[in-house]
Amino acid sequence: MASSSDPARARGDRVAVTIKDVARVAGLSIATVSKYMNGGHVLDDNRVAIEQAITTLGYRVNVVARGLKTRRTMTVGVLIPSIEQIFSTEIIAAIEKQLAKAGFSTIVCDCQLDAELESRKMEILLEKQVDGIIMMPFSGLAEPIQKAIDQGVPVILIDRKVEGVILDTVLVDNENLARQAVSSLIQAGHRRIGIVLGPKDLYTSRKRHTGYLAACHEHGLVVDPDLIRHSDYQIPGGSAAFLALLDLPDSPTAIFTTNYETTFAAGLIINERGLNIPLDLSWIGFDSLSMAQIFKPRLTIVAQPVRQIGETAAQLILERLSGAGGFACEAREVILPGELIAGLSTGSIRTIAD
Amino acid sequence: MASSSDPARARGDRVAVTIKDVARVAGLSIATVSKYMNGGHVLDDNRVAIEQAITTLGYRVNVVARGLKTRRTMTVGVLIPSIEQIFSTEIIAAIEKQLAKAGFSTIVCDCQLDAELESRKMEILLEKQVDGIIMMPFSGLAEPIQKAIDQGVPVILIDRKVEGVILDTVLVDNENLARQAVSSLIQAGHRRIGIVLGPKDLYTSRKRHTGYLAACHEHGLVVDPDLIRHSDYQIPGGSAAFLALLDLPDSPTAIFTTNYETTFAAGLIINERGLNIPLDLSWIGFDSLSMAQIFKPRLTIVAQPVRQIGETAAQLILERLSGAGGFACEAREVILPGELIAGLSTGSIRTIAD
DNA sequence: CTGAAAGCGCTTACAG
DNA sequence: CTGAAAGCGCTTACAG
Question: What does DSSP say about strands B228-230 and B193-197: parallel, antiparallel, or unpaired?
Answer without folding.
Answer: parallel
